[in-house]
Amino acid sequence: ASDADEARRRGESDDEHEAFRRDLVAGLAARPKSLPPKWFYDARGSDLFEAITRLPEYYPTRQEAALLRRVAPQWAGRFGPDAVLVELGSGASEKTRIVLDAAPDLAAYVPIDISPTALEDAAARLRQAYPALRVLPLVGDFEHMGVLPAEAGQGRRVGFFPGSTIGNLTPEAAETLLRDAREMLGPDALFILGVDLIKEPSVLVPAYDDAQGVTARFNLNVLARANRDLGTDFDLDAFAHRAVWNEAEARMEMHLEALRPMTVRLGKLVFRFAQGETIHTESSRKFDEARVRALAEAAGWRVEAFEVSDAPRVALALLAS
Ligand code: AVJ
Fold it and tell me: Which of 52, 57, 121, 110 is nearest to 83 (CA)?
C-alpha cells in the first residue's frame, strides 16, 4: 500500500501526512535542527501527554485546574445567554468540565484539535456527561483557524486556550493566533488564556524531565512516529531527551540529542548528525503579567482580569475584544 493508503488506515488525512513530511524534511535540513511540537500528538503522544499531566513534577495542569475552579464561577457570570465555548487545542477536554459546570446554560461547545482520535473520544465523553450541550468538534490546526459551525448559534463566543499551549508558539505566532481568534470569535468575544509563569529552574526543569522518564518517552515518540508514518530510520536508542531552561528567552526547551555521529534516511534523502547535535522539538515560553498584557494588547484584546494560582504559580487571563 502507498504511504497515503497507510495514512488513511490510521485515520490521518493525506494533507496531514504530507505536512508532517514537509516539516520533518525542512526541520532536519535547518541549523539548528528542529521539529514543530504539534507532531508530538498522535494517539500515543496524546496518551503520553495525558500521563505527563498526572506526574508529580508537572505542576501546570493541576495548578491551572485549581485556579480555574476558583475563578470560573465569577467569569462565567459574564458569558450571557446562549454563549458558545470555543476551545483551541482541546486534547482530552479535561479542564473544559470546570467551565461547563460553572456555565450550565452554554448553547454549544466547539472543541478544535489536530488529533481526530483525541477529539472524537473527548466529544463522546462530554456528550454523555452533558446530554443537553451541543458538542460540535472541529478537526483543525489552531494556527489556521476555520469558520465556526453555523449550528453554534449567535450567542457570545468565549475562546478557551488553557494549558499554556500558547507558550509553544513564537512571540509572533502567539500574537497572530490571538488576533485570528479575535476575528473568528466575532464582536464582544471573551477569551480565557492560561499561561505558565517564570519561576526558578529548580521547579521548571524537573517538570520537563521527570524521574519516571515519561517526558523522555513523549519527546522520543516523535521519532517513532516519523519512522512509522514516514519511513525514516531513526535509531531511538541513539537519542537522549534533554530539557533546558533558556533564561534569555524565558522558555523551557526540549531537545533530542544524538549520542553518536549518524545518518538518518528518508527515501533518497540523507540527514547527518554530529555527536551531541540536537533536534529542538519544543519551546514552552513562560510569562509574567506584563508579558501577557503586552501580547494580548498587541493582538487587539483588553485584559479584564489576571489571576494567579498558589505556588508553583500559573496564571489565567480573561480577555475581552
Ligand atoms: C501542552 C504544550 C503546554 O509545554 O508544558 C509537557 C507540553 N511538553 N511536557 C508544555 C509539554 C513537555 C505542554 N503544553
Answer: 110
